[in-house]
Design brief:
heterodimer; A: mainly alpha; Globin-like; B: mainly alpha; 8 helices; 68% helix; globular; iron (chain B); Globin domain-containing protein (chain B); metal ion binding (chain B)
C-alpha cells in the first residue's frame, strides 16, 4: 500500500515531530476544537474549556500513538488493534470524523504540519501523510460493525 | 460566516502562486482529480504537475474567482449560481472536488503563513471554503 518513497516521507516528517508530541498534539487538539467545535463532544472528560495542561497531556498521548503507527506502518492492524477496540466499543467516534478524502476534521489537522514545517512541507510529504492517516483511520474504524 | 479577520490575510495572498500551488497539490495528493485535466499536458510527476503552466494558470483563475466571491460572503449561493450550473451541466464535476480543493487551499495557506495562521483564522477560512463549496454544489440537479 505504501511505496518505499512514501514510507521515507512519512518517517522524515515524523522525525520533525518526535520529541515534541505534547506541543504538536496540544496544538492539533486546539485547532480541532476551534475549527470543528462539535468534536468536543468526544472529549467531555477534558471539561468544557480544556486547559493547556490537559491539552498537552492528551495531545501527547494521541501523538505517541501516531508515532507507534509510524514505526509499524507496514503492520497497522496488529499495532493499532487495541486502539481499534477502544474506538469501536468505548469511544464510538463517528467515522466521518476520521481522516480520509471525504472525511473531515482529523485530516484537516495536516494544517498543523503545514503551519510548522512551511517550506519544508513538500507536496510529497503531504500526499504520503494524507495516505498514511487515511490508512490509520481505516484500521481505527474497522471494528465498528 | 466570518468577516474581516479572514480578509486581513487575503490581501497578502499572491493569487497566482497560492492558486497554482493549491490546484497542483490537489492533483498530486488526490490523483483521481486529474480526470478533469487530461488536456493539461504533462501530469506525470509531482514536479511536472506543480511546474505545469496550465495548472498554474488555471489555479490562478480558480483563486481569482474565489476571491471575487469573498466580496459577497453574505450571498455565496447567489455569487456562485452560474458557476454552479456550469460545473454541473458542462463540466460534470462531482461537488466533492470543491471540498477537496478548499481543504488543500487551507493547507497551502497554513504553509505560507505558519504560526500567523492561528486556529481562529483556520476556523474562519474553513467556514469560507466550506461555504464556497456548498454554493458551487447548490445548483446541481
Amino acid at each position: 500500500m505504501l511505496s518505499a518513497q512514501e514510507r521515507a516521507h512519512i518517517a522524515q516528517v515524523w522525525d520533525l515531530i518526535a520529541g515534541h508530541e505534547a506541543s504538536f498534539g496540544a496544538e492539533l487538539l486546539l485547532r480541532l476544537f476551534t475549527v470543528y467545535p462539535s468534536t468536543k463532544v468526544y472529549f467531555r472528560h477534558l471539561g468544557d474549556q480544556p486547559d493547556e495542561v490537559q491539552l498537552l497531556s492528551h495531545g501527547q498521548r494521541m501523538l505517541q500513538a501516531v508515532g507507534v503507527a509510524v514505526q509499524y506502518m507496514d503492520n497497522l492492524h496488529a499495532v493499532l488493534s487495541p486502539l481499534a477496540d477502544l474506538h469501536a466499543q468505548v469511544l464510538r467516534v463517528d467515522p466521518t470524523n476520521f481522516p480520509g478524502p471525504s472525511h473531515r476534521p482529523l485530516l484537516r489537522q495536516l494544517v498543523v504540519l503545514a503551519s510548522h514545517l512551511q517550506g519544508e512541507y513538500t507536496v510529497e510529504m503531504q500526499a504520503a501523510w494524507d495516505k498514511f492517516l487515511t490508512g490509520v483511520a481505516v484500521v481505527l474504524t474497522e471494528k465498528y460493525r | 460566516l466570518p468577516n474581516h479577520p479572514t480578509l486581513s490575510l487575503s490581501h497578502r495572498v499572491n493569487v497566482e502562486e497560492v492558486g497554482g500551488e493549491a490546484l497542483g497539490r490537489l492533483l498530486v495528493v488526490y490523483p483521481w482529480t486529474q480526470r478533469f485535466f487530461e488536456h493539461f499536458g504533462d501530469l506525470s510527476s509531482a514536479d511536472a504537475i506543480l511546474g505545469n503552466p496550465k495548472v498554474k494558470a488555471h489555479g490562478k483563475k480558480v483563486l481569482d474567482t474565489f476571491s471575487e466571491g469573498l466580496k459577497q460572503l453574505d450571498d455565496l449561493k447567489g455569487a456562485f449560481a452560474s458557476l454552479s450550473e456550469l460545473h454541473c451541466d458542462k463540466l460534470h464535476v462531482d461537488p466533492e472536488n470543491f471540498r477537496l480543493l478548499g481543504n488543500v487551499l487551507v493547507v497551502v495557506l497554513a504553509r505560507r503563513f505558519g504560526g500567523e495562521f492561528t486556529p481562529e483564522l483556520q476556523a474562519n477560512f474553513q467556514k469560507v471554503v466550506t461555504g464556497v463549496a456548498n454554493a458551487l454544489a447548490h445548483r446541481y440537479h
